[in-house]
Design goal:
CATH topology of the largest domain in chain B: Aminopeptidase
Largest sheet of chain A: 8 strands, mixed
Strand order of the largest sheet of chain A: 1-2-12-3-13-16-14-15
CATH class of the largest domain in chain B: Alpha Beta
CATH topology of the largest domain in chain A: Aminopeptidase
Strand content of chain B: 15-25%
Number of helices of chain B: 7
Radius of gyration of chain B: 21 Å
Number of domains of chain B: 2
CATH architecture of the largest domain in chain B: 3-Layer(aba) Sandwich
Strand content of chain A: 25-35%
Structural class of chain B: alpha+beta
Oligomer: heterodimer
CATH superfamily of the largest domain in chain A: Zn peptidases
CATH class of the largest domain in chain A: Alpha Beta
Distance between the termini of chain A: 44 Å
Largest sheet of chain B: 11 strands, mixed
Amino acid sequence: MIELQTLLKELISAPGISGYESGVRPVIEKAWKGITDDLSVSRLGSLHGLQRGTGPEPRPGILVAVHMDAIGLMVNAVLDGFLRVTSVGGIDVRVLPGQMVTVHGRRDLPGMVVPTPARLLPSSAQGGVVPLEYLLVDVGLLPGDVAGLVRPGDTVSFAQPPVETTAETLIGHTLDNRASIAALTHCLEILHSRPHAWDVWSVATAQEEVTLGGGYTSAFQLHPNLAISIDVTFGSSPGSPSHMTFPIGKGPTLIWGPNVHPYLFNTFRNLAEKLEIPFSVEPTPLNSGTDSVAMQVVLEGIPNMVVGIPLRYMHTPVEMIALKDLTRAGRLVAEFIAQLDEDFMDKLSWDD
Amino acid sequence: MMMTPNTIPLQIGDEQVRLLESLSNACAVSGDEGEVRKIVLDQVRQVTDEVKVDALGNVLVTRRGKTGGRLRVMLAAHMDEVGLMITHDEGDGIYRFGTVGGLAPADLPGKTVFVGKEHIPGVIGITPIHLIDGDERKIPISLDNLRLDVGLVTGKAKVGDRATFTTTFSQLGPSLRGKALDNRLGVATLIELVKYDFPDIDLLSAFTVQEEIGLRGARVAAYAFNPDIAIILDSTPAYDMPAWDVDENVRYNTRLGGGPAIYVADSSTLSDPRLVRFLIDTAETHGIPYQIRQPGGGGTDAGAVHKQRAGIPSVSISVPGRYHHSPASIVRLSDWQHTWSLISTALMNITPEVLAAER
């Protein structure tokens, strides 16, 4: 058995901001190597795992996407030993002052995001939130050394170490979406020892946070009959709108909305009820903010399902998940795949 | 005047950095200084029995010299740091809190903290960016809208518990990074001074409490010691970063790499000019780098000490440090080494003559 908490801590400790996923990919390869029949890397850097099905060829295939890229920062100027940065992915600048980071220069440098002191800011920026353009990264080195080690374009990762609690919650950065990689790993482990008719493509996608690039290109290359995204969703937290958030530790969410095929949604819901896996229905009026936004419209169109894992404080370095939600999500997806028979696509219909 | 300048062989090295590390990682919010006090007591009791913990929790250490007519020199370094106190339990591991000392709410979102004596981990989160509109993100988050979340762990964190940042001390090339270096640097320096023999003075060392909430420990410590002079060891802000328009920064307060900062004036103290002059003379005679802290705001325990009893001639020396009162400060090791050289050399050479002239 792969110890999911250990794996997840390793996953969130590896760098890999959008477009630069090579830091985390080997960690996933190591976890999937023994439980997949084949592993390969796409042209954009997504990792493709294959578990061959037992059905006769040509076998139908299902793609399960979990994005592996992280939000982060990128150096855009080096100034008197300090770095100015821009963001990669959506970051609320209010969490940045005082944040520990790793600057991936000619070598990795520990650093810290700091605001320009109020006395050195224009009057227009006094008393409010210090905008990103006036935040700096301090790596503690002398200016000449910084100039030799860091260039514009170098990536910057959050360095908040993982924090475990006694209530089996885990806190850290990039649990969006490395938590879902752990959930999919649990799913693959179940399917590895369980017969399944379909081919299963496990895909750790690149660039979801910025371009959905991995979702578009891997779905095209692998051309599955069905696709599933597992991604984190908004966990209930103090001050967040209750109608758009879901409790952590109370099971995954099943997304209902235009990115999801209703037949797949109903199949998932019936299965979760039958297996007594707790879940919430997550109404999603517009796009789901997941790889399924892309995968749904690849080629001639692919029926999609989205499974959410509630996570508090999304896109901050102190995201929080409940570990049992990962195993529940992984098990539910595994059970769904295991019950897919050769005729499933014929049954897929619109309830019009 | 100095007759025969003495020098001190001890330098700040690995052992002192390890001591600073343990002090920096310890949690000691104003009013709850126990973790640092324990380290201080363990250290100073190795060299003297004249150690007292007073009514407020100050650690007062007396080391008497050997010669006659000795100057009574008080040194003070505050042990406390800014932090939080839990004020209300909202259930399910969610708590409200107040700040202790000059801690800006803007430094809190997205940080992990340790709560209480057991160091229970918690976070201060914010609503995801996806669920907040752009204009709202330009408004600072008020303390009222922040909560401490210990991740579904119930019954462990309690109302009244203090909390501090979880930052782990580290060395970054020529720099040191850690929480509460304001003023664990002063505490570490003073611990080393207590271990040293200064034959011509009585060294009266106060490891003070509650500096960050009104210089309260130093006030009673100075009364108890009744010294001839006082020197405060602290860490003062360095604002030596690029200004927004990359114009010349003339409001730096102090600069990293510039050596110990000598105070002339801050918001609560006009340093005794005789002591300022003595420190400058000592630095220049011994070739020790130093800088004058830009006169202006801020302050140290000197604000309480110099007005105690009938008045105590006082001055402050600080290691310059960036980002104090945030999750971590960054300081330069060389500045600490030069601070050590200046204060130890000064104590080796100071005589009652320093007060011979009227102020």
